[in-house]
Design goal:
alpha/beta; Dihydrodipicolinate Reductase, domain 2; nine-stranded mixed β-sheet; six-stranded parallel β-sheet; 16 helices; 17 strands; 32% helix; binds nicotinamide-adenine-dinucleotide
Length: 450
């Protein structure tokens, strides 16, 4: 089932609008709009639930500081009263704080609620916000369980409220360039794609120290982390998944550790643990997490060898799309270096993206895109340098512009809605279900849009 622009798929639309390859630089990169704000712009009343790292900085501090012409932050909520108080101080304003979501909505009357809690609670707040008459903006993954996905679909339909999902990975430079090239038909019909994600022993290991290590919180990394990648694939391919088969193992962390303790700070094995991590060196984390431990018992520096870890660190997934494209995806969180290899094979050629993390720059430069047309040598596709500042290479700024600045351009269809959020999460949910059932899982066995 392809997404359509009128009667044409987006790819056909672009082709017929005679945008060609040339495409190798032709599209406008969505950027901040000009500074002039029309006087008639009514400020959106925004409330936020989940005032941890992402909520207090990207969607808290930054929105209040840089988007005050478009919105007013009217309420902050978190189950941890100390963290929500700290978030208010960090944001630097007098925004009312709450530990009860319904009370926040009743007393602050927001138009839109931003949801940045632990993943497993996104669906609960998205649906509750809509039932209480608000639009919702959810961090990825939109949901971690098939029942949650269905409840979001049903609630959206019943309430008619608007939902956006913050897939900032769509705004990366190489991500956008790949979309332009694929939309322009540079490699023709896409037969297959390979997506390999490598997480190193710093970034990769960090997921196992946090709530992400528990499936009941994150839906495994197949939802938490891979939801970015499954969304990119759905968007790049302009297609929807129909069937998923997956394998997963826990090779390094959790029960595999040589010893374990509650958390790094108090650990008696510090000297011999090659993954020991000292949170006390990070002032922000001390304030945001350590000083708030008394409220919920959450350790941000929990032992990554704790037995409770029930997610995978090594995953392999096959996805069949309604367009016929076959995808091979892998995610490994135990790797000596960090980066991505993404390859598309089409009827007219091959497109390859290599993204190397900055820690690997002594091996090769950051991003490399190569295009092979059949029977021709590869060409290196240039990437324009980006002047936009902000988290994730400026992507966090671009997504906020599209969400909050009236009239922001969206030529590549980067604004992601309910169906995009569901289709990304559901691949992860189907993947862990396939691992558990040891057989392929059809998407229609998990959810229905009817
Ligand atoms: N798009 C991105 O690049 C990106 C980057 C980082 C995080 N995220 C997403 O942002 C979300 C938050 O991640 P984080 O790193 O800030 O985590 P975090 O642990 O710092 O914050 C999570 C917050 O949710 C609160 N919380 C937990 N359960 C709750 C509940 N039932 N009701 C209300 N509040 C609750 C916690 O107290 C905590 O303050 C996650 O969904 C994550 O996937 C996205």
């Amino acid at each position: 089932m392809k997404k359509h622009t009128g009667n044409m798929s987006r790819r056909e639309f672009i082709r017929k609008s005679s945008v060609s390859a040339a495409a190798l630089g032709a599209f406008t990169v969505a950027g901040p709009l000009s500074a002039a704000v029309p006087p008639e712009v009514k400020k959106i009343r925004v409330a936020l639930v989940g005032t941890g790292s992402r909520g207090s900085s990207t969607w808290g501090e930054s929105l209040v500081r840089d988007y005050g012409d478009y919105l007013e932050m009217v309420g902050l909520c978190d189950i941890n009263s100390k963290r929500v108080d700290y978030a208010r101080r960090k944001i630097g304003s007098q925004i009312p704080t709450f530990t009860d979501f319904d009370e926040m909505i009743r007393s602050t009357r927001p138009d839109t609620v931003i949801i940045t809690t632990v993943d497993a609670y996104h669906a609960k707040y998205v649906t509750r916000a809509m039932e209480l008459g608000c639009d919702a903006i959810s961090e990825k993954p939109l949901c971690t369980h098939a029942e949650q996905a269905q409840s979001i679909i049903d609630t959206c339909k019943r309430t008619g409220r608007r939902l956006n999902v913050t897939f900032n990975a769509r705004y990366g430079r190489s991500s956008m360039k790949a979309k332009e090239l694929l939309m322009a038909g540079e490699i023709g019909e896409i037969y297959s794609a390979d997506y390999a994600e490598f997480l190193d022993l710093d970034h990769g290991a960090s997921y196992f120290r946090r709530w992400h290590g528990l499936k009941q919180c994150s839906g495994t990394l197949l939802c938490h982390k891979a939801s970015h990648h499954f969304d990119q694939l759905n968007w790049w391919l302009d297609a929807e998944p129909v069937e998923v088969m997956a394998y997963g193992d826990l090779n390094k962390y959790g029960r595999n550790g040589p010893f374990r303790h509650l958390n790094c700070r108090l650990c008696v094995h510090k000297e011999k643990c090659d993954l020991y991590w000292d949170i006390t060196k990070n002032k922000l984390f001390m304030e945001l997490y350590v000083n708030c431990e008394s409220e919920d018992g959450y350790y941000r520096d929990a032992c990554l060898y704790r037995n409770a870890i029930n997610i995978y660190d090594t995953m392999s997934v096959q996805v069949k799309y309604d367009s016929g494209t076959l995808v091979t995806y892998s995610l490994n969180a135990t790797v000596a270096t960090e980066g991505q290899y993404i390859v598309f094979h089409g009827s007219k050629g091959r497109l390859e993206l290599h993204n190397y993390d900055r820690r690997s720059w002594n091996v090769a430069p950051g991003t490399n895109i190569r295009l092979w047309r059949n029977f021709e040598d590869a060409t290196v596709v240039p990437l324009e340098s980006r002047r936009v500042r902000g988290g994730h290479g400026g992507s966090d700024t671009l997504i906020k512009d599209v969400l909050f600045k009236p009239g922001a351009k969206d030529e590549l269809g980067q604004r992601a809605g309910m169906r995009d959020g569901i289709m990304s999460s559901i691949i992860g949910i189907a993947a862990y279900t396939s691992i558990e059932r040891k057989k392929p899982v059809k998407i229609t066995d998990l959810i229905t849009f009817a």
